[in-house]
Amino acid sequence: MRYARPLIAGSAAVLAAILGATAAFAATTWTIKPGGAITASAPLASVKDTKTRSNATCDSMAAHGTFKSGSGLPGSGAGSITAFTFNHCTSPLGVTWSLTATDLPWHLNLSSASGGVVTGSISHMQIKLLGPSCTAVIDGTSATVGNGHVRFHYSDATSHLTTLTTGGNLHFYNVTGCAGLWNTGDPMTISANFTVSPKQAITSP
């Protein structure tokens, strides 16, 4: 019995810590000003198969969407992207690729903030790729679920939203043709630095 009591006490302490951490996470809220309709544009952005190292550079990427407005807002679904375009994407050999955002709206989520920089994610992503003798779907865990996501940093000071090449789950699926540039199951990243307009002040108290 003398062994059981420390074990029970230890288990209770661990459970309390877990519940406390869960409650703290659930209590995290956000203030977004002014919110409302937004546009975002990024020059010279790129998509990359990180396994084959094949890269397509786009003259620009552009997004239209909304942020919620006010305080006490949840981080999940804090905003949405209702339209997203990839403009004139080419390989180093000059081959043109068409990328089309699908399964819209995509979701804008907020997870943490420090020093005026917000970390978040764009989720519910799916993209269709079409090129010369080449088709593919870009998604998260399969070609049909629409659960792709990328992480980002947003700076309150500069109004720049920068996609990160780590922490996402985008992959190529249903690849047909493509001469080995992209292969089914290969991971994919998006590198872009968007200017968001109007400028948003996003904070977590």
Please characterize this protein's 3D structure.
With 205 residues, the chain is mostly beta strands. It has one domain (28-203). It has one helix at 4-27; strands at residues 30-33, 36-49, 55-67, 70-73, 79-90, 96-102, 106-114, 117-131, 134-139, 148-155, 160-163, 171-177, 188-191, 193-197, 201-203. The strands form two sheets. Strands 2, 3, 5, 6, 7, 8, 9, 10, 11, 12, 13 and 14 form a twelve-stranded antiparallel β-sheet that branches. The N and C termini lie far apart (46 Å).
Question: Can I get a quick summary?
Answer:
The protein has one helix spanning 4-27, and strands at 30-33, 36-49, 55-67, 70-73, 79-90, 96-102, 106-114, 117-131, 134-139, 148-155, 160-163, 171-177, 188-191, 193-197, 201-203.
Number of domains: 1
Low-pLDDT windows of residues: 1-27
Instruction: Indicate the multimeric state.
Output: single chain
Integer-rounded radius of gyration = 20 Å
Largest sheet: 12 strands, antiparallel
Strand content: over 45%
What is the secondary structure topology, with strand pairs?
Layout: H1 4-27, E1 30-33, E2 36-49, E3 55-67, E4 70-73, E5 79-90, E6 96-102, E7 106-114, E8 117-131, E9 134-139, E10 148-155, E11 160-163, E12 171-177, E13 188-191, E14 193-197, E15 201-203
Antiparallel strand pairs: 1-4, 1-15, 2-3, 2-13, 2-14, 3-5, 5-6, 5-7, 6-8, 7-8, 8-9, 8-10, 9-12, 10-11, 11-14
